[in-house]
Amino acid sequence: MKIIDYYIIKKFLGTFFYAISLLIIIVIIFDISENIDEFLENEAPLRNIIFDYYLNFIPYFINLFIYLFTFISVIFFTSKLASNTEVIAFLNSGISYNRFLRPYFISAIFLAILSFYLSNFLIPPANQNRREFKDQYMEKLTKNKDRNIHLQISPGEFVYVQNFSIGSRLGFKFTLEKFEDDELIYKLSAERFSWDTATKSWHIEDYFIRKFDDGKESIRMGSSFDTTLALVPADLYILKEDYEIMNYWELNEKIVNERLKGSDNVKYYEVEKGKRLASPFATIVMTLIGVSLSSRKIRGGMGMHLGLGLGIAFSFILFMQISTVFATFGNLSPLFAAWIPNLIFTIIGVFLLRSTPK
C-alpha cells in the first residue's frame, strides 16, 4: 500500500469509530433516562447495570448500525476531501479512479468482517448477560405458549400438551405418539408431567400406554415413571427473540429443529440468519454509494452530500424493514428478502459510480 491508502484508511476508520463512539454515549444517556425508573424500582445493582447491561449493549449497538455509520463516515470525510480539491489532486497525479477506490474497499471489507464476527460469534454470548439482566430487572422475556401445543420432536414422534407452566415446570394432558410407515405403533397419554432439573428427565403421572405390534394391541397403565424425550421445557414456552443468544452454528441447528417440529416460528430464525449474512455486505454497498456520491465537488458542499446520503441510507433501512415483514408474514424467501436491499442498492451504486466524474 502507498501513502494515499494509509491516508484514506486512517480517515475512513477514524471517522467511523469516532462517530459511532459519540452516538453510543448519546444513546446510553437516553437509555438511562428512559429506564432509570425500572432500575430503581427493581433495585438493580449499579455494577450489574454497567457490566451486565451497558457493557454488553455496546457491541450490539455497533453492529446494529455499522452499515449506516460506514455510509455516513464515507460521506463526511470524502466530502471534505472533495471540497478541499484533494480528490482532484489525487486523480491529476495519475491515479485512476478505480485505484482511488481501493483503500475504501479495504476499509469496507474490514468492517464487513467485523460485522460478521460481531453478529455471529461475539454478540450472542454478550447478549446472554444483557438478556438475563433485562429479564430480571426490566421486562420478562419468557411467556407461556397458548393452550393445545402440538410438536414433532423427532421423525415419526409427535407430542401434544394442553398447557404448560414456566414457573412450576408442570404440564397437563400430555400425549406422545410414535408412527412407523404412517402407522401408529405407540401412544402414551398422561394427566400430568413435570421436568426434573436434577436428572434432566420428565416425570410422567397417571399414564396410559398403548402399543401396537403386528395388529396386536397391548395396554399398560400406572401412577408414575421417569423418562427422557427429545423435548425440553424451552420447547413449551416462548422466549422472546431467543435467536439473539445463538451463534451462527446454534442458529442453524435451531432452524433445523424448528422445521422438524413444524413450528411457525422457523421464519423468524431464517430471517435472522439472512440478516446476519446480508448485513456485513451492506457495508460494502454503502461504501460504494457513499464514495461515488461524495467524491464530486458540487455546489452546496458537505451539507448537500450529507442530505442526499441520509436520504439514501434511510431508504435502505426502509427497504430492509419492508422485505423483512414480507419474509416473516408472507411467502417471500427469508434469504432472498435479506439480500433484496443489497441487490437494489448495488445497482444504484454502480449507476452512481459510472456517472461520477473521473
Topology, please?
Elements: H1 3-41, H2 46-64, H3 66-83, H4 86-92, H5 97-137, E1 142-144, E2 149-154, E3 157-165, E4 170-180, E5 183-196, E6 201-213, E7 216-227, E8 237-239, H6 248-261, H7 266-294, H8 301-329, H9 334-355
Helix pairs in contact: 1-2, 1-3, 1-5, 2-5, 3-5, 3-7, 3-8, 5-7, 6-7, 7-8, 7-9, 8-9
Features:
9 helices, 2 domains, 8 strands, alpha+beta, 358 residues, six-stranded antiparallel beta sheet, elongated
Description:
By secondary structure, the protein is an alpha+beta fold. It is built from nine helices and eight strands. The longest helix has about 40 residues, at about 95-135. The chain folds into two domains: about 5-140 and about 265-355, no CATH class; about 145-235, no CATH class. The chain is elongated. The mean pLDDT is about 90.
Please give a quick description of this structure.
By secondary structure, this protein is α+β, with helices and mostly antiparallel strands.
Strand order of the largest sheet: 2-3-4-5-6-7
What is the total tally of β strands? 8
Number of helices: 9
Overall average pLDDT: 88
Straight-line N-to-C gap = 21 Å
